């Protein structure tokens, strides 16, 4: 039962990230936050990614890499 819930959570996160990626690229808009908040998000996700790599928490590595990529795409679209 626990594995089913974790797999469902992973699939939901993957679908949300894919949807956000295509929404960013199709609309040529990023997140609707000011640039300084996006840069803080980028730094925060990078720090969390490095921490999860050190702890070998690969599920969180995937989530933080996906979030990092989405924020980078948002920054590129905003410029």
Tell me about this structure.
The chain crosses the membrane at residues 7-25, 31-50, 57-76. It comes from Brochothrix thermosphacta (Microbacterium thermosphactum). There is one protein chain. The protein has 79 residues and is mainly α. The protein has one domain (2-78). The protein is 85% helix and 0% strand. The chain is flat. The N and C termini lie far apart (45 Å). The model has no long low-confidence stretch (mean pLDDT 81).
What's the order of the H and E elements? HHH
How far apart the termini lie comes to 45 Å
Task: Let me know the number of strands.
Answer: 0
Main sheet attributes: strand count, strand direction, barrel closure: none
Based on Cα principal axes, name the global outline: flat
Low-confidence spans: pLDDT under 50, at least 5 residues?
A: none
Structural classification: mainly alpha
**Overall tally of domains:** 1
How many whole angstroms does the radius of gyration measure?
14 Å
The averaged pLDDT comes out at: 81
Number of helices: 3
Helix content: over 70%
How much strand content do the residues show?
under 5%
Keywords: Membrane, Transmembrane, Transmembrane helix
Organism: Brochothrix thermosphacta (Microbacterium thermosphactum)
Transmembrane segments: 7-25, 31-50, 57-76
Protein name: DUF3953 domain-containing protein
